[in-house]
Amino acid sequence: MEENKPSLELDLFEDNVAMQNTIMAHANELLDTLLDFKELMFYYSSAIREIRTKLEILDTEFELKYQRNPISSIQSRLKSQVSIMEKMNRKGWEITCENIEEKLNDIAGIRVICSYVDDIYRIADALISQDDIELIGKKDYIANPKPSGYRSLHLIVSVPVYFTQSVKRVKAEIQIRTIAMDFWASLEHQIKYKKQINDPQSIASQLKTCADVISYTDVMMQNIRKQLDDEQPEQSELDKIYEKLKKFDVPLGE
Ligand code: 0O2
Q1: Which of 51, 115, 138, 168 has a CA between 20 and 30 Å from the CA of residue 123?
Q2: How confident is the model over 90-129, as pLDDT tens digits?
Q3: Using a 6 Å CB cutoff, which residues line ligand 1?
Q4: If we measure between CA atoms, which residue out of 179, 145, 32 comes closest to residue 96?
Q5: CA–CA separation, 188 vs 85, rounded Å?
Q6: Residue nearest to atom 26 of ligand 1 (CA)
Q7: How far apart are CA 110 and CA 76, in angstroms?
Q8: How many helices (H) and strands (E) does the chain have?
Q9: Which atom of ligand 1 is nearest to the CA of 186?
Q10: Domains assigned to the chain
């Protein structure tokens, strides 16, 4: 027994070293995967920054020309890790960085809130006509609302992002809707996902009615704006000067 002891200790020591090496190898592999994921998220956040800048430029240009902003606000978000995992699992896709990049279109999400319905199409057309923007998909839930009453224009685009040694095309989902459509979508999302619903049919029908009323209001507001635009009386020379002077007050976003 006594004689075997050093050999047993040596075996245990070697097992321990082997186990430590395995753990280190796994940790290293895991860290590499997490770093790849971090890099992937950096690509998407860079795409968001580029698209936001493009939208802000379009908004300022419009303000300089026509003294009003077609964009009321812009929101953006990177899809959370838990939402990415949940969606990949739901669709039955293996969770790898390659699959996430290939299959998911909405990791970079930008929501553009416009004042009027015609502004939505004006902004969408101006954006997708830019040379470096590639339109991958378009869903017009304004022309064809979802059964829930949801209205919004969805664009899937890709944009080139320039890094020191490479250029990468990165996908983003852009949802463009009016203030009224956004009001409905935000509240509907909160109401539906927060609570257990006893009578889902009645709630769905009431929400659909609200969506239709809101849509009618959007059309009326746009018609009123157009009517007032058309009715603009002849401007005096002084009015024309004031109009030009007002353009000097437009913030240029520097
Ligand atoms: P989140 O947190 O907003 O990102 P997809 O699952 O995207 O592959 P689908 O159905 O083709 O499949 O996408 P769709 O319909 O073009 O867009 C999905 C997104 O639109 C949703 O994102 C919502 O943001 C929004 N949306 C669609 N329908 C409704 C609706 O009835 N009510 C509300 N409030 N929003 C809606 P996510 O992924 O659900 O979540």
Answers
A1: 168
A2: 999 999 999 999 999 999 999 999 999 999 999 999 999 9
A3: 106, 109, 139, 146, 148, 150, 154, 185, 188-189
A4: 32
A5: 24
A6: 150
A7: 4
A8: 7, 5
A9: 34
A10: 42-249 (3.30.460.10)
Amino acid at 190: Q
Cβ neighbours of residue 77 closer than 8 Å, sequence gap 6 or more? 109
Burial 37-46 (b: 16+ CB within 10 A, else e): beebbebbeb
- Dihedral of alpha carbons 218, 221, 226, 229, sign: negative
Joined tokens for residue 237: 């020379």
The answer to whether the beta carbons of residues 172 and 108 sit under 8 Å apart is: yes
Nearest C-alpha to atom 27 of ligand 1 is from which residue?
A: 150
CA of 9 to the centre of ligand 1 (A): 61
pLDDT per residue as tens digits for the range 163-184: 999 999 999 999 999 999 999 9
Low-confidence stretches of the chain (pLDDT beneath 70): 1-5, 194-195
Whether pTM exceeds 0.70: yes
**C-alpha distance from residue 197 to each of 188, 204, 209 (Å):** 13, 10, 18
Q: How far is the CA of 104 from the centre of ligand 1 (A)?
A: 13
In ligand 1, which atom is closest to the CA atom of 87? Answer: 6
- 3-state secondary structure (DSSP) of residue 78: strand
Pocket test for ligand 1, best of 86, 93, 106, 184 (most atoms within 8 A of CB): 106
